Amino acid sequence: MSKLGNLGARLHHGEVGYDFVKNRKIWYGISILITITAIVGLAVRGLHMGIEFQGGAVFTTPKNMSASVSQAEEYAEEASGHDAIVQKLGDGSLRIQIAGTDTAQSDQIKEALSEDLKVDAERINADLVGPSWGDQIANKAWQGLGIFLVLVVIYLAIAFEWRMALAAFVALIHDITITVGIYALVGFEVTPGTVIGLLTILGYSLYDTVVVFDSLKEQTRDITKQTRWTYSEIANRSINSTLVRSINTTVVALLPVGGLLFIGGGVLGAGMLNDISLSLFVGLAAGAYSSIFIATPLVADLKEREPQMKALKKRVLAKRAQAAAKGESPEDATSDGSFDEPDDATPAVVGPRDQPASRTRGRGGPSGKRR
Amino acid sequence: MAAPKKGRNASAQSKPGRSLALILIAIVALTGGMFASGHTTPRLGIDLAGGTSITLRAVPEAGQESAINKTNMDTAVEIMERRVNGLGVQESEVQTQGDRNIIVNIPKGTNSKEAREQVGTTAKLYFRPVVATELSGPAGTASPTPSASGSASGKATDKDKATDKATDGEKASSSPSASASSTTQGRAATDALKADPSPSGSASPSPSGSAAGDDSSKLQAAYAALDCTDESARAKAGDGAKPQDSTVACGQNSQGQWQKYILGPAEVDGTDVDEAKAVFNTQTAAGWTVTMDFTDGGAKKFANITGKLAQNQSPQNQFAIVLDNEVVSDPYVSQALTGGNAEISGNFTQEEAQSLANMLSYGALPLTFKEDSVTTVTAALGGEQLQAGLIAGAIGLALVVIYLLVYYRGLSFIAVASLLVSAALTYVIMSLLGPTIGFALNLPAVCGAIVAIGITADSFIVYFERVRDEIREGRSLRPAVERAWPRARRTILVSDFVSFLAAAVLFIVTVGKVQGFAFTLGLTTLLDVVVVFLFTKPLLTLMARRKFFASGHKWSGLDPKSLGAKPPLRRTRRPAHPGPVDPKEA
Asked: By its UniProt entry, which Gene3D superfamilies does this protein fall under (chain A) (predicted)?
């Protein structure tokens, strides 16, 4: 099998693994740093809202223009310094829309355009246009988003628990902040496409976190019935055991978007395609990262504050100390058997590696049936 | 595996074939439907395909020039946006231009005539009591004898049997036919008629023949002179009437004859309508009708007026539903209608009923608009953008396939097949949604669909990893496939539920492009579940019987050895370190 396949096997058997939970402070630190950068970027540079949100100027040229749409777009962007939308109308005239211009600027742009397009300035009709993405759409979008977030937190709190809901929420905010911040830093204009991209990320970020949490929930189901691992340790295993899945999914999701961003954008330079794929690329990467490096360690952090888990940790540590005092490896004496025997009384701590007893009893034969 | 498994396997054996057959039939049927409908590509948004641009100019009404202000223009934009973009997937754009123009851009392939009607129609709706009515024709027939008038209205209303339907007893229905798209509404001259709350009598030979009010003589004159068969006269009828005034109006009855009316002051108006829907009425054979739910206030007013009217004699027990000064419906009332809803029937076609419902739901425009120009526009993004995007996307997808092939080997066949099925279903359904609900694909949606591929792929990656984990446990392939499924299924359902929740909430609450996004997200999420349940899982079950996979061929992607499966026998005990990353098994 390929190297990755081997890695999968070794991760599965716990031969290799990265201690995500133990090193969480580093990752928290990195994330906080990135987030602060993003917020500063946002505060300093701000977002350039596109014509769809704030309106702008529209110029209509006379009929039968010789200049092509892309030429006109270039001229318009040069003259205004903003992204321009150029459309050819039925009678051959051009409609050029430019964001964020007032009447005074509009006159200058008109002059510049008339020179570039070699048309008499008087024959270019200038007008102001309002936003097509009006306040109503924006308000309803915020409202919908708010309702969704409340519902999803409630859902996660019921399906999982409130700590996971909180962690998923933090991860979500983290992803969105980073994406918006990078958008501000790069200086792309915000279009409806950007907003759709952000919403896509919002969905993906939660989706990815939930997949990781599902494994975490499964592996920690009977955690109090054993004394071998603390919650953090099991959380860490859970991340490692779904790591292959996380990597594969991220690669599969990122490859096409990366194609759009690097190939599409590289060939064409900036454009709407670039705007969207940038926000998607950053957001997807952040979403995959935060599920593993932020959300799960955060759950472990919160869980370890629970009295039950504190007691468990105490028991686990005591046991280890005891074993160490005896001068032997604890696994030898106690856990190997208890851990790997499917019909043992204290099963169910590690998901993919060992089946919980109930499942084994329900469906499979006894362990002797294994090949 | 062992004996207890047999029953399960047997059921699993009959199932995969059926599921696969089901989904293949669905694909074939949908594809057939797509070719039959003649829409073999999804409709593209303005950014990708261009479309039609309509410029509307607000027409000042006499003495109301100040009404054309920013607030009213913005409201008009919002209402038009909702009318042409009701579901949010139509990708139409509405914006103001200058002080009194509104540009409406609709993507190619939209029924532009219908769209023009929808944005241009003011849609002022009033419920007015009928004071008098008669068939209207050229001058000669305009003054019928008293008896003729009585029979005329009787005739019209016989057919328009107003109903308290046994089922709900609340729907008033009748069927004078009228075009849903009524015409202009100007304000040339104002009738100085005073409102008269009680049905005012008329000099004309109305069957009720109650005393004539002094103020109504002008109205009577207008009524007598009105010839509804003449289009220009019809357009002027009731011009400039204020809602609180009595007025005259025209309408067509179910035989297609024009009928003229004297109508009392408006008792309920369009703002009292909460929501309107186009419904195919199978009970009364009225065909397509529009049902309206009133707001609480509207329901009270409506119950009031119908209660009053029910005590009157024909035709004063009728009320007229007047849309932009044309009577679309004039049902009878025999008792107070307290249910808070009403039905308009009028020999509508489906499109007419839907566009009327649409207009009523989103309210009347605060201003009257005239079409200034209609022209085609090219795509807002150059053609090269789309092309480059497609090429880049294709390269990205090819990379995905290569990655899957390298990583999953033989298993990647199932992965790629699942992706193809998912892509085919998405494409076909999007193509079909173009003509049915006006779904149009814009560039962000294309990108969203590409991300959706990632999410679909995730579902079977989760499943494959579970299967491989089971094999690592030392299970043979077939039981591994079955045992991995319940757990993978739960993960898939839980995570897809979150996506679906997002889609549902956003679709219900938001408007415009966000709503369109929610629709696409919901669709792709559902398809993800469908594909994994009906295609990936059954296919894997079937493939697990193949020797190539079952024997764990080196290239199958399920080779126990390279997956690092446990040896078949109990392994030897090895010391291991405590700690989370403990090398338990080597």
From this structure: Multidrug efflux transporter AcrB transmembrane domain
Reply yes or no: is the peptide bond before residue A307 cis, omega within 30 of 0.
no
Sign of CA dihedral A340, A344, A350, A351: positive
Interface test with B, best of A218, A236, A237, A273 (most B CBs within 10 A): A273
Q: CA quadruple B7, B13, B14, B20: dihedral positive or negative?
A: positive
Which of A133, A196, A367 should be substituted to probe chain B, the one whose Cβ sees the most B Cβ atoms within 10 Å? A196
- Mean pLDDT across the stretch B173-198? 35
The verdict on a CB contact (< 8 Å) between A272 and B578 is: no
Structure confidence at residue B102 as a pLDDT band (50, 70, 90): confident
CATH code of the domain in which B65 resides: 3.30.70.3400
Domain count, chain B: 3
* B93 φ, ψ (degrees, to nearest 5): -125, 140
The residue to which tokens 């000669």 are assigned:
B140
Does the pLDDT at position A234 exceed 50?
A: yes
Query: Between chains, do A271 and B47 touch, taking CB under 8 Å as contact?
Result: no
pLDDT in tens, B321-364: 887 778 877 777 777 777 788 777 777 787 778 777 877 787 77
* Closest residue to B77, CB basis, from A130, A211, A237: A130
pTM: 0.70
Q: Determine the distance in angstroms separating the CA of B495 from the nearest CA of chain A, rounded to an integer.
A: 5
B387/A contact by beta carbon, under 8 A: no
Average pLDDT, chain B: 72
Q: Is residue A162 part of a domain?
A: yes
Residue numbers of the domain that contains B221: 122-348
In this prediction, residue A194 has a pLDDT band, given cuts at 50, 70 and 90, of confident
Q: Report the residue from B81, B377, B557 with minimal CB separation from A87.
A: B377
Chain A residues in contact with B380 by the CB 8 A cut-off are 85-87
SS3 (DSSP) at A60: strand
